Amino acid sequence: MTGMGDTIANPINRRSMLAGSLVLGSATLALPRMVFARTAGSRNLLFMLLRGAADGLAMLAPVGDPGFAALRERTLPDYTAARRAQGFFAIHPALDQVGAAYERGEAVFVHAAATAYRERSHFDGQNLLETGGTQPYGLKDGWLNRLVTLAGEAHGAPPRALAIAPTMPLALRGSAPASSYAPSALPQASGDFMDRVARLYAGDGQLCALWAQAMETRAMAEGSDAGNLRDAKTAGELAASLMREEEGARIAMIELGGWDSHANQPVQFARSARQLDALLGAYRAAMGSAWDRTLVLVATEFGRTARFNGTNGTDHGTAGAAIAMGGAVAGRRVIADWPGLGERALHEGRDLAATTALESMLAGAAAEHFALDPKTAMARLFPGRIAAPLAGIVRG
Amino acid sequence: MSRDSIALNRFGYGLRWRETMSGAPVRSAEAALVAEMDRFDPRPPAIAAREDTSARAGEILELIRRNRNMRGRAERSAPATMGPQGRTAAMAGDAMGGPLAELPPDIRRAYLDGGRILRRDIALKVNLAARSDTPFIERLVHFWSNHFSVSAGKPGTQHQVGNHEFSAIRPRVLGRFSDLLKAAVLHPAMLLYLDQFQSAGPNSRFQRRVERTGPERGLNENLAREVLELHTLGVGGGYGQADVTEFARALTGWTISGLGRIERFAERRAGGASFVRFAHEPGTLRIMGQSYAQAGPDQALAVLDDLAAHPATARHVATKLARHFAGDDPPESLVARLERDFLGTGGDLASLARTLIASPEVWVTERVKYRAPFEWLISVLRLTGLEGLDDKRIAGALRELGQLPWRAPSPAGYDDLAGSWAGPDALVRRVELAERVARSVPAGGVLARAHSAFPGALSANTRVWLSRAESGTQALGLLLVAPEMMRR
């Protein structure tokens, strides 16, 4: 790479090479061969963590709730032609492939859901969602790692677990064996990160001017989201390639950032949702026949304020939405004990109230998928949570 | 910036995360910097363990010469088969940029080997700075290495440029300037880079012999001119063309080891250079008003000693040091103080370092310097604790950022001005790299880390945006490109 002529002739190669060259490992994934018990061995679980608090009210909009129009009238046109879901909900149009899966009966939404966490810090909220405890930093290992142990106990050998990330996310840390792998083309600098840098520089004359100039040049040079969508699609295909074979990973995790939409939310949410959609669509297509035995759980650390703020965004809120998707899912349903969006129904007068424990969805779906006792799963994966695990997400 | 933050970031390479909570005794920022001078290890284990590559430069030059001779014979015997393409390949080797595949296998292997050694030395330099507990002195090493810039663009230099910094510069950064000058200028890397190795005195016995038998060699003024213009007196330092020519004559005979035909006449000198007496210009030479009657290698050494002590050199060095630590347009008061110190102590570099630490101009609270890419990357590695990158990735990152070590575009070294580094695309590259680095390391406690990295100097704006990040990873990425990280 040095001294022997420049390999970086064009900017596209430069970017992808940089992505691969510095921090992301080029080593191939070395997964030891293991024999699985039949029940666990054929089932796949992909856990997707949307970091930054994805807005459930945008993802699955309760367009039939009169409170929604009152709070978010300006976004109503976005849902005019959107796919409808059970009840009075509409699926955000950027989630095209998720919506198609819903209509095929391969996706379930869980709404007005939240973990035990009721505060508004991303760091604490993610810690709690990943450890599965009831207090941030109360547990040191992750619920997904404990699921590996639990499934191993039930079926004789722990399912192979893998984080598709350069470092092991907390949800997969723990005593059970888990590997991590990051491909070279992933991840690109995200649009959200670039936006935040712009705001970080807003008050700095020199950096602000440099940044504005750079963004102007980039806008002329390339389309805005094409790169990120390509990356998302690549990530989905990669996840599938690491899971669909018999010796592949059975439990995997992917993180997707970009959901903290304090400003310009309609644009920012749609951008992140398109990435999520591209990833899931590519994953489904690449899983082939293994899709029938697959469950994807998509969750985020908390919701967002029901009302828009002064910069056309929303701030940190409480309840949000989650998705279960896959050939193994008994779909075309919305699971929600809908609390309503009237002034008095809102949590602290500002957020969608939580009526379903997110943990009960995760534990219930995982238990059904891996043929585990749901109560045991709830107690082991999310100790201290007393909610009943949700039943019937996965086909019997 | 607070004094602690200045000591960390302006004098050093920033906080090294995880090592800050140790029970080191609390002392003033100034005392901590002075203490680094006693603690500095000029030859740490990583350098001591480095394989000796000093013979490789001569070997590869011999390979190329033999290949050229063979090619010449082939062309003479069968000119129709050796078209321009063959010549292009041979020249490409000299330029280091051409298609390696067209080179003869042994030369190609030698180049690839040189590239490997160069990458390893870059990684060695980076890791030393990233892990150092004497970052102020590491910064001085980097400063002087850039002052005596050598570039790995010519055959043989790839093996030597790392060696130049590690063995010629590093041990002398707290010594006397004259010793540093002699070691840096008369090192094989410099002798190769500035063409000195093939310069011969017009009246030397060597010259008289080759005039009868071989191609013209003669005097090369490149090194002499650059020493006067860049390394000692500076532009406008009062030298003329006659001084350049006479100094070039004084330097004749200084060459590298391992050149086949003259190797048996080569007298080994300290630092890996050789002296070939019969290529040296005989007689007394007159440079900058001084006469030099010394015989052989001592003549150039005497000239260098006098140049090192020249008032113009004191001014030149003081200005560059002041610019590096106190801003692109350094305060005249600081330049004058460093200049007086240099002249008063005979170029004692430890004294200059102490004067820098004691100078109020270096402790002004505004951030006075835009971090150059190398500095920024080292600070990123320190702040994240990112380790274990292989040689290719380190070199690749520095190339992307625009400041690959030992690849400066001219003998003047890399520029030390914000205008050269604060560009839009360069900034985006840092941002892209920062996000990727942040994704590859544990990202806990970012706000606490930010406060430790910029004690008493973290802006409210940065604090706000770090605390609003949607994940620890994102917060760390933002910290790596925050205004506090871009300037020191």
TrEMBL record, chain B:
InterPro entries: DUF1800. This is DUF1800 domain-containing protein. It comes from Erythrobacter litoralis. The lineage of its organism: Bacteria, Pseudomonadati, Pseudomonadota, Alphaproteobacteria, Sphingomonadales.
